[in-house]
Amino acid sequence: MKLYSWNVNGLRAVAAKPTFWPWFKTAQADLFAFQETKARPEQLDPSLSAPAGYCPYFSWPTEKKGYSGVAVYSLTEPIQVTKELPEERFAREGRLLHLEMEKFHFLNIYFPNGQKDEDRLDFKMGFYESFLSYSQFLRKSKPVVICGDFNTAHREIDLAHPDLCREISGFLDHERAFLSLMIRKGYIDTFRHINGDLEGQYSWWSYRAGDRIRNDGWRIDYFFVSQELEKNLTRAWLEPHVTGSDHCPIGIELSF
User: Which of 46, 104, 198, 213 could form a disulfide with 143 if both were Cys (CB 3.0 to 4.6 A apart)?
Assistant: First the structure.
């Protein structure tokens, strides 16, 4: 199975660019997970609301339009689909889609950004905790695959200028500690597991002029799999050459 994740920073906007559909058709994924879609299904062209050959699923904010949102296109129909975390205060922003597949639970998540203020940072950390509790509950029945924009770089190797970013949300010690906790709980950072400590491997670049050309980026988009799937993980990669968003697509392959 080939799985892709991409924060598209507007699904309609990225699909209007000439690179999107050639990439989509060439990728030939079993599952596409998109974050920051910024649209309800009825706002989308049929090619996006019901792409040929795929079962489409969407979650969007209940209060703020044109914000957040996630989507999954699946080649096979899932057993069931859940939108949002069970905890009510985290179930309003269109940040999660959970597809129960035959072999695993699939979680597509757009984690909150904590840079606005302390309240928002607290919301982000609470979301992390609620998500992990939910994932651990699901894991009791079958393995878990988690993908999305985590809005945190885990280690110094995961961003271009760690010394300049230690006081910025996205690289704060307690944010990074959450990713370390996930790994201790038995979740595998698939890219590092397969590729080791390759440097200069990023998935997001600021829109500031030249940042992407200079590769002044952060790796804040991840695929994690629970340890039960370690033997099934065959490949993990980034696609920084694919443009259209300030993030790039990331992917994994699982063999069953």
Answer: 104
